[in-house]
Amino acid sequence: MSYIMVIAPLSANMLSKIAGGLCDNLLTCVVRAWDYSKPMFVAPPVSKRLACGDYGNGAMTEPSLIHSTVRLFLESWPQPSD
Question: What positions does the domain Flavoprotein occupy (predicted)?
Fold first, then answer.
């Protein structure tokens, strides 16, 4: 049983599908069936310096930052009992 959902990165296209209730792929179907009394985290793309020196949108937030954010939340969240 899952107690938390993390979607990273979440594109604007996928966000619009989820917000509109569209279920046209596995992720949107899982989100639609998700128990919203359980936490769901989304990490939208961020602007980042690219290898070529330019800045660009669409980079994923560092996984370590996502992990630490979720972990901090879970430390204060009451643990569900099965």
Answer: 4-32
Identify the residue whose tokens are 């179907």.
29
How far apart CA 82 and CA 78 sit, in angstroms, is 13
CA proximity to 7, closest of 34, 24, 23, 21: 34
DSSP state of 78: P
For the annotated catalytic residues, the residue numbers are 52
pLDDT at 81 over 70: no
Q: Which CATH number fits domain 5-76: 3.30.300.30, 3.10.50.40, 3.40.640.10, 3.40.50.1950?
A: 3.40.50.1950
Q: What are the tokens at 27?
A: 């992720």
> What is the per-residue pLDDT across 44-69, written as a single tens digit (0 to 9) for each?
887 777 667 777 776 788 899 999 99
Q: Name the phi and psi angles at 54, rounded to 5.
A: -80, 165
